[in-house]
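User: Okay, second chain of the day. Same drill as before: sequence in, structure tokens out.
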Amino acid sequence: MTALDRLSKYSMSKICDACALAGFYVPYKQRRTKAALLERISTASEEQLLSIEEAMVEPGQKRAHRGGPVRNDRLVKRLRQFDPSEHFMDLPDKDTMNKCMENYIDATSNSALSTAICVSCARRTWYKEMHHCKVGEIANLKLLVPRESHPAHELYEGRLLCPQAINRSGETHLCADCERYLKQERLPPLALANNMWLGDIPVELRVLSLPERVLIAKYLATAYIVTLMGDKRTSCRNAIQTNQQTKNHK
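Assistant: Same drill. Structure tokens below.
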């Protein structure tokens, strides 16, 4: 009779307790049925099977009834199951700490957090995630021709591109979304040439304060985040006065 046959005579709860006591891991899915549990134990080595058999509760012992006192041996098993290993809460070595600090510095450096403007959609995204090339090297550049012309359009060789994203040498940046659509010979949904061009904001609108922008807005936002500068009392008083003036004006 093999060790697996001897273990099959016990109940699932006793086998699971013995596996936990012997340090043999059994996934939750394989603890649902006895067949799956035995199949998992069949992959154990001879030493692990011997440890499981030694940790097995004798068949004559009875399980404590629900709500009753827990036997000492069961209590010991439960406690030993959650005993930390010998390396638990040990401090990492100096090389590991230095490596973590280097990774943190690299992930939060100026170069890692720098952004750039996409020449196609004028969105500002992470510089490291953009494709850097010259304007003439962009795939299917003909798709970026505007469908409807406007007198304020600043065209680059007949294409509607973001002028702020092109330097003097003709180098530019392309976001991953626009690059993927252009390689598929499709017009990017957020491209300026796809009727997404709004033009520059007039000076008269750029100099408006927050209450003035709220008064002329066609759609009102549910909340505004305002950074208060200077003295706390003065900033709060000015903010309260601004809100009162806006309310009275309405």
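The beta strands are 115-117, 124-126, 131-134, 155-156, 159-160, 171-174.

User: Thanks, on to the next one.
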